[in-house]
Design brief:
Low-confidence stretches: none
Distance between the termini: 16 Å
Order of helices and strands: EHEHEEEHEHEHHEEEHEH
Structural class: alpha/beta
Oligomer: single chain
Shape: globular
CATH architecture of the largest domain: Alpha-Beta Barrel
Length: 250
């Protein structure tokens, strides 16, 4: 299971006790919303201290965040694209290394959906791989984001997948999205996963072996049986490929 740490830090009472019962029973990861790794503003060390305590208190297996930014002298409440430049690679990697040194563990950065590429000097895959290598961090592989970006920015999703460093995958996300137009998809987490995304997930397992995979659904929540059917589809897809336990090594 996965939670956003910002939603649970300093939550006590019956809600805090309920979360504790779950984290004692199931393996948990946390997926941050406000680290803002590409922001021109300083890192939020108060937030990071709180996240470090949360990781320890709940035996969290992995802390992941978005390879984007969402603040500059205040939160923007959206994930903004980092320019794909060598200068940005150096800047972001240095900040990731500071976070990892502080937490005492590797973090996983997610390949995000984006709808504009300001000041682009390199491709998305080259930027992502350069950051992962320079920061020596892990990857949260969002399969739906690859598909969405491939439509919006006109590239081959399978070629993108093939170029990823599979050994850095900590776990994956899969989700649904909204079809705005033939050439525009919006990452919403508010719909069922579609067949092309399932096929891309299968290709990822075929290339890299099995890895933990989380189904994301943020709204338009269907009946539980429908959600569990998608979870079972993930398991069926995984069962065709060799099984690993990557989060044990994170």
């Amino acid at each position: 299971m996965e939670v956003a740490p910002e939603n649970w830090i300093n939550v006590g009472g019956r809600y805090g006790a309920s979360l504790r019962r779950y984290t004692e029973k199931f393996p948990f990861v946390v997926h941050g919303l406000s680290l803002s790794i590409g922001s021109p503003s300083s890192l939020d060390w108060d937030l990071l201290r709180a996240i470090k305590r949360f990781i320890s208190e709940h035996s969290i297996r992995c802390y992941s965040e978005h390879l984007s930014y969402c603040s500059d002298s205040g939160h923007l409440y959206d994930l903004m694209p980092i320019p794909f430049t060598e200068e940005a690679v150096d800047y972001v990697a240095q900040r990731i290394m500071q976070v990892q040194d502080f937490l005492g563990e590797r973090i996983a950065m997610e390949n995000v959906s984006y709808y504009a590429a300001p000041q682009q000097e390199m491709s998305e895959i080259d930027f992502l791989n350069a950051v992962l290598k320079k920061a020596d961090c892990n990857l949260l592989l969002d399969v739906n984001n690859i598909y969405v970006n491939s439509i919006n920015h006109h590239y081959d999703p399978y070629a993108f997948l093939a170029a990823l460093p599979g050994e850095r995958i900590a776990y994956a996300h899969i989700a649904g999205h909204y079809k705005e137009a033939e050439d525009l998809r919006v990452d919403t987490h508010g719909a069922n996963v579609i067949d092309p995304v399932w096929r891309l997930l299968d290709a990822a397992y075929c290339q890299f072996g099995d890895f933990p995979t989380l189904l994301e659904r943020d709204f338009n929540i269907p009946p539980v049986d429908d959600l569990l059917a998608e979870v079972e589809q993930i398991r069926d897809c995984q069962s065709k490929h060799c099984v690993t336990s990557r989060l044990d090594a994170v």
